[in-house]
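Question (not urgent): is this output format expected?
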Amino acid sequence: MSSEATFETVVRQAEAAIPRAQYHIGGNAALMAERIASGFPSTEVYLVGPIGPRSQALLNPSVRRTNSTRITKDELHVIMEYKQGETLGDYIAPSSSRFITSHDHFSGSTVVMEMFFKAIAQFKPDLVILSGIHTLEFHNKEMRLEKLRMIRRNLLQISSKVPIHFELGSLADATFMFDILHRIIPHVDSLGINEQELAFLSHVAGGPHMEEYPVQAGTVHAHKVVEMLDWLLKTFGRDRSNPNSKNFGYRLQRIHFQCLTYQMVVSAGNDWSNLASGLAASSRLAGRMACNLVNQVCCLL
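Got this back:
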């Protein structure tokens, strides 16, 4: 949400509507750090991002964090979940979904970005997870482009032996999405996206089924998702068969797609030996977190 005043009004209304508001860890980076630390206790997790006092208290104590990105007041995300058929004024929800809004000051700040890449050099991780780039959307175009250039420069300096996963976030600016597609996505090894993001990528770059954006009620049919993922991986993925091709220097080899009804993984090359187990684990976690499904079987594609 571009207006800070409007967002603060939304937060006040949400807090007033709920007698005892509940707060949870939010944001892709913090959520993944929390899940990794909880699920794999022997793994050392280093989180770089804006951390306020409430986040500090909620995070798993084993998650390492830097004091350089501490903030005095937590940045909140407001999530509105609704079922199919629920009404809001004159609107009727065509399908069950959720609406997430925020107004982040610090997630896309230069200080956080610099500390992130500095931590990579010092921490020497076995895996790098990048998220939060979508929070740059409401910066002016010149600042946005400069920060994307800085991110790209630093990504190119990370060893090819250290896999980079990029978790894309929802955004609405076509120019910004186009820039992310061409400047960032080819230089990560793995990409996580949902149906809105995939359809938008295809829309801004003239890919298959570009008319699917914006995604309306329900989900995109699986065969269309397959064709869009195939296009994305072939166009912006690594290709070592032709040294003269621009794709020869790219890194992208894996895309993990998820929506409310199914998940899908596509990959190229032989560097990913745990695709099936990773997909199964993700589906189980998604069912547990989003729908409180514990024992039910999740369908995998």
